[in-house]
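Appendix B, record 7
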Amino acid sequence: MTWTRHFGRFMAGTLAATALLATPAHAQADPPARLTDLVNPFIGTQNEGNTYPGAAVPFGMVQLSPDTGHNTGYDYAQDHIRGFSLVHLSGVGCGLGGDLPVLPTTGDVTTTDYAKYAAKFSHDDESASPGYYRVGLDSGIEAELTATARTGVQRYTFPATDKANVLLNAGQSLHTKVATEVEILDDHTVRTKLTGRGFCQDTVPYTLYTVTRFDRPFTAHGTWTGSTVTDGAKTGADGAYLRFDTRKDRTVEATTALSYVDARGALGNLRAEGGRSFDAVRGAAQRAWEDRLDDVRAHGGSDTLRRTFYSSLYRSFLAPNIGSDTDGRYTGWDQKIHRTQGFTYYQNWSLWDTYRTQSQLLSLLAPREARDMAISVIRIDEESGWLPKWGYGTVETNIMTGDPVTPFLTNAYQQGLLHGWEERAYRALKKNADGVPPAGSPAVGREANREYLADGFAPYVKDRPHAKPGDSDYDHGASATLEYALSDAMLSRMARDLGHRADADRYAARAQNYRKIFDPSTGFFRARDVSGAFTGPADPAKSEGFHEGTSWQYQWLVPQDLPGMVDLVGGKQAANDRLDSFFAYGQLTEDPAKTAREVWVNGPYDYYNADKYNPQNEPDLIAPYTYL
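Structure tokens (predicted):
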């Protein structure tokens, strides 16, 4: 594994240096002593980028970050903080997480709605770096955040007052709450149980457990249920307030541990990772990030380009996230408690968003974690009966379409990360490739597989009722066909390596199914209905049946057979001409920045009615390499 890590460093560093050295010589400078100084966690926090600026360690279970009222958590355009909550995902487009928002206040507790007690702040008094976040609130309170893998640590510096409060809001978050409970255990400790559901659409409920311990006793407390606050109460449904006297000592620290297993798991995580001062935890988090970022040493380039590069590299290490407690227990997708054996369990699988890029990067730069991630996905199949599509916490959300888990796992196999697990992975992948999950399973898998196996394509069936919550491959039959075929190609290679020759030949033949949706009359891919007829607008910029894109943008998603694709569009020169048009190459060479901002991208969710490259979304990510 050491060799793989160093090999990854060399390859990624070489590629990064090549890109960075393409800038003018007068703009070049050496990296600073600390690579974390090059990371800007605020990048992507406005215009629907849906990133978060708060504190986390690489792949940590906890992402402690401010929520401002945006559906995914933080929006730089907003100026009130509702709380600092424990769970966030970077870059996703639907609301989830935001669990247990905590906010320091002063005075009497008069409302339980975090939209009403939200604290005003200014970006002039706000800063963030990997593993650390700080903000000065207009109330005169300073809030600081840092984290370990399974805990979030908050430090509040209050004005001198006998009514310094810390509000723990269990009843509100970024998704639907099903049930919550709060209990004050002693004058230092509060526990919560939070059950929620939903991501983009509905999901099976899932439960989180937290334990919060303060570094000093609180002088008063209370809980609330709904809008009713009960002073002195130790139990409540929706929240608790803890009061401190800060006239002599103005600082209050709180450590919150999280578990997806049970209250015992949260307490165990607190005992294992808590107990250190805020500054000690912050220092450890910064060192963890320095170590990660040092996997790639990029020299040269402008300061702006280096900051962009390392900020992006930083976000590549934010997920997937640890799901097992320090004792090795985790909640599987069968909602039963399991224990790891020789690996760390990971969760939060945005596979459609990452199978083209991040999984390969992590295989190079974080092979130990990438192996554990792949094993975790295999365990999901073994425990729930099916591989994931888009998993959050302990449940399947079925968001996005196609078959992203196959390239994810076959990449892990090709990188040598599945030693001892090869056949277990193959069995799961074969079942996924050749079947459809039963009605009783929450998974949809390859939802249109029956038609795909019979006819060679997934049909586009507009407005078909969804059998299960989430997205449907029938709504995006054309892109689903392309992704099924790509996955078949990847699985064919794995099958051949493992000696399953008949399977390999069968999957290789299916990998050619991309041809089934090519319309010679338009020269582009096009959706077909259940009868096999091409359907929807003939204009490839207005095509239907493609998920978050058009036929123009999906036309290069045939990496398994680019020579065949080139032949379909009329040969090498025709393909190059089409690529030049797609990238607006003439405009790009004259003014790259203007072309990117005005031709390529027009809005945060500008996926449709387009015939140009869109670098902000996944279907186009491999298109630039088609020139090679």
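Remarks on this record: The chain has 18 helices and 26 strands. The two ends are 31 Å apart (CA to CA).
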